[in-house]
């Protein structure tokens, strides 16, 4: 255990030494950082990107969407969704239509009517 005098000496030396340069929290991150993040295989398709895709671009066999209000869950095979809504239909729009067609939460107010989709990965 260092003595109080040794601890003061160590603290004084540490204060004199230049600290390693670190970016301030407000400073923008370097471009190399973002390139490495995007090159990472784990940075694949996010949920938001999946919702914006056309049905023909989705490789999953089964698509699943649930409602945040009534907690209903609907599943549809991708092939069936393409047959019913077309190859160029966006998954987000198809999911909303599927939920709205069987919605039980009708109040008469536009802002409150309908289901609130939550996209899930099967």
UniProtKB/TrEMBL annotation:
Region of interest (Disordered), ranges: 1-30
Stretches with biased composition (Low complexity): 17-30
Compositional bias per record (Basic and acidic residues), positions renumbered to this chain: 1-16
Protein's name according to its UniProt entry: Uncharacterized protein
């Amino acid at each position: 255990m260092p003595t109080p005098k040794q601890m003061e000496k160590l603290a004084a030396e540490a204060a004199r030494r230049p600290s390693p340069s670190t970016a301030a929290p407000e400073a923008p991150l370097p471009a190399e950082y973002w390139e490495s993040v995007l090159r990472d295989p784990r940075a694949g398709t996010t949920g938001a990107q999946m919702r914006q895709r056309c049905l023909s671009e989705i490789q999953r066999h089964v698509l699943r969407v649930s409602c945040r209000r009534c907690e209903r869950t609907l599943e549809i095979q991708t092939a069936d969704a393409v047959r019913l809504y077309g190859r160029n239909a966006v998954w987000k729009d198809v999911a909303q239509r599927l939920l709205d067609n069987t919605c039980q939460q009708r109040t008469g107010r536009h802002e409150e009517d309908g289901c609130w989709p939550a996209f899930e990965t099967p």
